[in-house]
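Long-time lurker, finally posting.

We've been working with Mid2 domain-containing protein (Trichoderma ghanense) and I want a structural starting point before designing mutants. I don't trust myself to interpret raw outputs, so I'm hoping someone here can both generate the structure tokens and explain anything notable. Sequence follows.
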Amino acid sequence: MAFTNQPGTLLGPLTTTWTMPASCSVYMPPCSTCDQGFRGQSCNAISGGQVQDNTACWPPVTKGVASPTWPFVGWGFYSPGLACPAGYTTACTAVYGQRPEWDTQFTLVSSETAVGCCPTGFTCGNINGNTCIATATSTAVPTAFCDGSDLTDSGTETFPNVVTITQTNTASGEVDVSTSTRTAMMLFAPMFQLNFQASDLPASTTASTTRPSPTASSSQQSTTSAADGDRTSKSSGGLSSGARVGLGVGIGLGVAFLLALSGFVYYYRRSRRVQLPLGGELHDNEVSEAADSPKVVKSPAQVYEMGDYYAPAELPGDGHGGDHGGHAAARYV
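Top reply, 14 upvotes:
Generated this for you. Predicted structure of Mid2 domain-containing protein:
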């Protein structure tokens, strides 16, 4: 029986991932030969160990929310709801004013979206309220039975399986043994309905987003990281383009100035060298290497042998020296 168009009970917000107790993942068949198993249950000692819905298998609710009567037939919804419990995923979506993907138990208000959170591999259904459904055809699931308020016969059941049934005819005392094969088992789990509006989503998520998922928060983080990285690169990436252009122009002008200065010095020294007389830059008595043949650069004054000074006289044409009082003619050193 499906329950729809109910106002529902606001259980509170669910914005972070919640993890349920491990016992909430155990499937409890009503009997050893039953082909159904229910998850999120507990053993009720008052009802003779009968299986019933367990509120501890639901995410925390706001203080003051009344506990549901057994069976739950859908407890309520979470709003704003942005994160499915651990092990659960978004299995269906409903948008206000649009056709929902399942028979929604609780009605939506304008601009509101709802998702149904189910264990991985389950689909959304409405069997006595919001329910998650899966068919176990070739898998292993944890199962247990109730003994008063305790779980017994805990183990893992693999499908398909073979069930042996023993029956005794009380009249004849004969024992009949028969076997049957169960190829499938229907699994049921509570569905958690999460309602939200666009204003409840992170700033980077657009209004068209219809279901809360890790993807939304991951894209926000990657966008923020990319923006922060861009700002960091701009702030720590060195000089701006204008500064780099100015620096390049300054370096170019400096190099041109040095080249011009070097050329000026070179031509200036060369012009000075041309204007000086040959050997003008040499020290006294040094031989100039620029002439075709060595030339002696005379000292500023004549050097004579010691003795009386006589002015130089021209020798006679016959090669004899003149008479100057018996003194020898002066000669150059």
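Before you design anything, note these points.
The first helix runs from residue 214 to 236.
The CA atoms of residues 264 and 270 lie 10 Å apart.
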